[in-house]
Structures are given as C-alpha cells and as structure tokens.
Design goal:
By secondary structure, this protein is an alpha+beta fold. The chain contains 24 helices and 26 strands. The radius of gyration is 28 Å and the shape is globular.
C-alpha cells in the first residue's frame, strides 16, 4: 500500500515547485531564494526515490530523465502552423491593413502587437493539464516530436496551474537568450571546442538534439504567443487568450500590446525598431494580428499565410566596404562554399570582415567582382551578406569570380549536379572535409563511436594516424601512438578502441548514414537498406533503380550515384568491408510471409529488454508499420513502463494494448489466433 501521507506530501511539493518555477522562469518575479527552491526540489527527489511508484511524467524531477533517441517520430499538427506574410516598409504594412479592413467590411478592429522572435517555432500539447507532446513546426502540417528536449526548458510548464480538461495546444518560440548563449560559447572556447555562430541556429539545433541532456545544458527559454486548439472553452479574442495562457502558467511576452488603430501599431513598430537590440533575445520585427477570433476566421488564409496577421520586419543594418577577395571553403558534405573577404567595417555594432556568398549562381546574379565597393547587410544575429554592388564606384580593374574546377584541398575534380546551385567535392578522403566527416561518422545516429570528438579527430589526422574514416578500424594496431596523445590515457584509449570494435556490427542503414552522402540522412538510408539489403546492390543501382524506391526522388538518386561513382569513395567502402564493417543486412522474408505484415503498431513507455528504437526497427523488419501517435488505424499499442497518455488514448479508441513479452512473441510467430485467450494485454 502506498503511504497516503507520502502521496499528499509529494503532491504538495510538486504544486509548490510548479508555482515557484512559474514565478521565476515565466514572471521573473521569484518569491523565494534559490537555496529555498533547491531545498524543496531535493525534498521531492528524496521522497520520489523512496516511493518510485508515485513518480509521474509531470513531476519537476522528470525534466531531464529521457534516454537518448536514434531519431524523431513524426508529429502531425491537427491545425496547421501557418507562416506569416512580411511587410518591409510602411506602405506594405498600410496595404495589408487596408485589405484586412475591406475583409472586415469597413469596420475598424482591435489589433494585437507582438515582438517577432528569432528562434524555433514549436507546439506544446497538454492533456488534462499535463504536457504530453512537444513538436517542431516542420512544414506546418507535420513536424518532429521533440518532447524530451522541450521538457528541459524550465519556462515550459509540465502541468498547468489550472485544470483544463481534454486536449489543449499552444504555440511558441524556443529561444537561446543572448546572455546565456555568450556564456555557453565562452565555456566552449575555454574547453578548446568550436563556438557557435548565433543564438537562433543554436536554439534550433539544441531542440533537435538526440540526447535531451545536451539540450538541458543549454538553458533555453520560450515565449508562448498563441493558442493552437482546445477541447475546453477559451476566450473569444487573441488578447484575452494571451492573458488566459499567462494565468495557466505559460510565459508570454510582457511587451505585447493591444491597440485600437493602425497608427498605434506603427508607433509600436517604430519604438522597437530603434531599441530591439537591447533585448536579451533575438527579434527581427513585430507581428500584428487581428484581435477577434471570429474576424480571423472570416478573413481566412491565402496559401499558407493568414490574411489576419502580418510580420513587419525591421530594416537590416547596412554599411559600405571594399570586396578584397572571393575565396571558397569545403563543407562536411563536400560543398564548395564561396565567401567574401571584406575590408573590416562596423555593421550594427559588429566588425564584419567576411560575408557568405552561398554558391556560384549567387555571385553571378549580383555581378560581384573582386575589388568592388559593396553594401553589406547584417540584421540582428544573421550572418552578414552582400546586398548589392555600388556600380558607379567601379574603376575598371575589378576581377570577375570563377569557380575552381578542382578541389583546393585534395585536387579532385569538382562536380555540379543538374538543377542544383551547389558545387561539390565528392572525394570522401578530402582532408578539408575529413574532420567534419569523422565527427559525423562517429555520431550517435551513425556508427555511434563514443570518445572521439573534433579535437581528437584533428589530432589523429595531423599525426598521420588516419587518412579516411575506414582507418579508424586500424587504430587498434596503433595503441602506443594513441596513448601518447594529450588527454588520451590508457583507459580512454581502451574505451575508444572497444567502441570502434563494437561499431563493426552496426546495420547497413547506419553505415550508409555514416558515409555522409549528401541528402542521405537516417530515414533515406533506412529506405535504401530495406530495399537493396546490401551496399553492393546500391553501388550497382542506376538512378532509375534508385528512384523506383518509394520516397527516393531524382535529387537523392543523383547524389547517391555521384557518391559511389567516385573511385575514392568506393575505396573507402572496400576498406570498411575489409575491416569487418557490415555491408549487408540479413535476408528477410517477402512481405506476405512476414509475421507482422499489414499491422500497424505504436510503441510507448520504457521497455526493459530493448530500446523503443530497437523494437520499432524489429517491427518494421517483420513487415509491420510503426506510427508515432495512437489512432483508429493502429492495431496494437506496445506499452512499457510509464506509458502515459498514449495508453489512455489506446484504451479510449479500443486499440489492443500488449506488453514487451507479447510483441517479442508476435515478432517470431505473428499475432495469436483469436481463440487463443492466453495472449497477455494491459487492458
């Protein structure tokens, strides 16, 4: 029996911690000291350790409790996350307002003004007041389920402060505050690690980390700016909804403003245009919305953009300077990236000496020539770029840019594919891209070799211990040289060599991912591996053979063909094969003979014998389909410990719930016959 007093005390502590967490992270108005908060948290942690059966997903102790994942499940948005049309000057803003006024049949309407955050749009779904899903925007209709990562953001409530029955979704922007980003970069620099370019991109990358513990270390923040949908009654206007969301525990922006006339909205814009850089988070404009939800619905959408809102962007900061040279570098995937070398110039408070030029077509479209005077633009934290040439300052001795025909690092011919602007070096042994390729090769989603970071990879290359990714598997013969490397003692070398040896058994899809073929992530690699079953079959496949695989288009097919057409790449594959790396998957029966053919599964909770990713892979290998959410189309829910809301959904929809032992039985023998009443379920 659970101690009733323990349950009561745990409930009380959770409520107090949720309250103080909201005061600190959402309102920036703490009522207790950090030490007092830590004491409450520790008291709850101790009680939950004594009573593990009382631990729930919405407990404050569970913000960072998830294990690393191998990939993200799809998250379908019940109501699309639309993008906004942009206005870049007063005339465009005024034109939008007049169109909206016409749709409102000439009746003036209230307007809500908000800052436009420069982060990553996400959707948070709650069920009966408890956070059950966090997803990225994706393409607006389908995003990625990144719930464990978003749970680490302390300004996101795990449980709402007030009861809200049924399902309830809000939208917001995940951000990396500038001050925290600067400290984060400083720590990386002190540790000899590469620093990140800007808070926006780092926030997006942090939300999509496969290990939630990495996300937690970055201390992201969020502002909630709208309601997605709700089963429960909600206010009838956007401004009232923002106040309602704040009372539920969400962090809304204190600079939001309700105005009556377009002139007031313009004043709001002009005020923030002059001071947005003082904010501790990225902001690149203001968003103006019609307040009434009824009027919003009446105005509707055009394409993927609502007619009832617009983003009024701040002007970019610009300066004039001289274009000294146009050089290129080589990216991890072999992309040849032109960049401008500029006379240093102050642009918006930052000294700019380089600017991205994207690709050869971009340079030609702007008619950039070495020696030109150019206008350089920098908006907020965006990487500087050249806006235009100042043609009347040309002296006649400027030099046009010519893309090199050979890689400056390895000397191999460069390749530009049809219908693509980027030029590539497709030599897998190219030194310029090898360090980043090694970093990718050993990553969790690829060969999963722990203990080898960017610094170690660069050292191995500099010392001539490896020349391509396949040489990792010969390091076991170079133990003495490895032990002599700084920060690589006997124990760390042993662990590294053991991880390398273990990686030889990774399945074909992981090997294909690790090779770093352009446009081939894990999902594409899995499609190729499932269809061809062996790397030799992929190498021999024509582009028509590749595009015959479901979801493989011409661009991916061309990329795969170009990669394996390169002799250096094929040599690396042969070295990997000779080192004992798996180059084919076991044969599997035809779909009709597979035990789970035609069945759809959802996997949830914590399993004991396998990870969720491993079980899902076994289900697919047995002919079954795997979905990320419970629906009437699902045949079975495989439920481990702490199954959460998906278990409730399955019970409500009548989906059969089975445990880990039963799915293992089914993987071998298929579903039990209807008359077999011994099949264990959790219903």
């Amino acid at each position: 029996m659970v101690d009733a007093s323990a349950r009561s005390k745990i409930d009380e502590l959770r409520a107090r911690i949720h309250h103080h967490n909201y005061r600190y992270h959402a309102l920036d108005a703490p009522e207790i000291s950090d030490a007092e908060f830590d004491a409450l948290f520790q008291e709850l942690r101790v009680l939950e350790e004594r009573h593990p059966d009382l631990v729930t997903p919405d407990s404050p102790t569970q913000r960072v409790g998830a294990s690393p994942v191998t990939g993200f499940e799809e998250a379908i948005h019940p109501t699309p996350m639309l993008s906004l049309a942009n206005a870049f000057d007063e005339a465009q803003f005024t034109a939008w307002y007049r169109r909206a006024l016409d749709l409102a049949e000439g009746e003036p309407f209230d307007i809500v003004c908000e800052l436009k955050f420069d982060g990553l749009a996400v959707a948070l779904t709650y069920k009966d007041g408890v956070l059950v899903r966090g997803a990225t925007r994706g393409n607006g209709s389908v995003g990625e389920d990144v719930t464990p990562n978003l749970r680490t953001i302390r300004s996101i409530p795990l449980r709402l402060l007030k009861d809200v029955p049924g399902r309830f979704e809000v939208r917001g922007e995940a951000l990396f505050p500038k001050s925290r980003f600067d400290r984060f970069n400083q720590r990386r620099a002190e540790a000899g690690l590469p620093t990140y370019a800007n808070p926006r991109n780092t926030a997006a990358g942090s939300v999509r980390q496969l290990d939630p513990r990495i996300t937690a270390e970055r201390h992201l923040d969020i502002f909630i700016y709208s309601l997605g949908y709700s089963d429960a009654p909600t206010p009838s206007a956007h401004w009232d909804t923002l106040q309602y969301l704040a009372k539920l525990g969400f962090k809304t922006n204190r600079h939001n403003r309700l105005v009556r006339r377009p002139e007031e909205a313009l004043r709001y814009y002009l005020d923030w245009r002059d001071k947005f850089e003082e904010l501790d988070y990225g902001c690149d404009g203001v968003v103006v919305k019609v307040n009434s939800f009824d009027l919003q619905r009446h105005m509707g959408d055009v394409g993927r953009e609502p007619r009832w809102a617009i983003a009024y962007k701040f002007p970019a900061t610009r300066a004039e300077t001289r274009l000294k040279d146009i050089l290129v570098n080589v990216g991890r995937t072999g992309s040849i990236n032109p960049y401008a070398v500029l006379e240093p110039v102050d642009v918006g408070g930052a000294t700019v000496s380089q600017a991205t030029l994207h690709n050869e077509d971009y340079v030609r479209s702007k008619d950039l020539r070495v020696g030109d005077w150019v206008i350089v633009e920098r908006a907020g934290e965006v990487i500087p770029q050249i806006v235009s040439v100042i043609e009347d300052r040309r002296a006649g001795d400027e030099r046009p840019f010519a893309m090199p025909t050979e890689c400056q690092s390895c000397g191999q011919p460069l390749n530009r594919r049809e219908d693509e602007a980027m030029t590539y070096c497709v030599n897998a042994a190219c030194p310029a891209q090898l360090v980043r390729l090694l970093e990718h090769f050993v990553s969790r989603g690829a060969m999963d070799i722990e203990g080898l970071g960017v610094r170690q990879a660069a050292t191995l290359l500099d010392r001539g211990l490896i020349h391509d990714v396949a040489d990792l598997y010969s390091l076991e013969d170079k133990r003495e040289e490895l032990v002599g490397i700084d920060r690589m003692g006997e124990k760390s070398v042993s662990n590294l060599l053991a991880a390398i040896a273990k990686s030889r058994e990774r399945p074909l899809a992981r090997v294909l991912t690790a090779l770093g073929i352009d446009h081939v992530g894990f999902e594409v690699a899995e499609l190729l591996a499932r269809h061809f079953r062996a790397i030799d079959a992929i190498i021999a496949a024509s582009q028509d053979d590749l595009t015959a695989v479901a979801s493989i288009g011409p661009k991916i097919a061309e990329s795969v063909s170009a990669y394996f057409a390169n002799e250096s790449n094929r040599a690396v594959v042969q070295k990997l094969r000779a080192a004992g790396v798996r180059m084919e998957d076991e044969d599997r029966p035809e779909p009709a003979q597979q035990p789970l053919a035609g069945l759809r599964f959802v996997v949830t909770g914590r399993l004991t014998q396998f990870s969720r990713a491993q079980i899902e892979s076994k289900i697919k290998d047995a002919g079954g389909a795997v979905s990320g959410s419970v629906s009437k189309r699902a045949n079975y829910l495989v439920a481990g410990e702490d199954a959460g809301s998906k278990l409730t959904d399955a019970q409500e929809l009548g989906v059969q719930v089975i445990d880990e032992d039963e799915i293992l039985y089914m993987l071998e023998r298929g579903p039990r016959e209807p008359q077999d009443a011994t099949a264990p379920t959790l219903l």
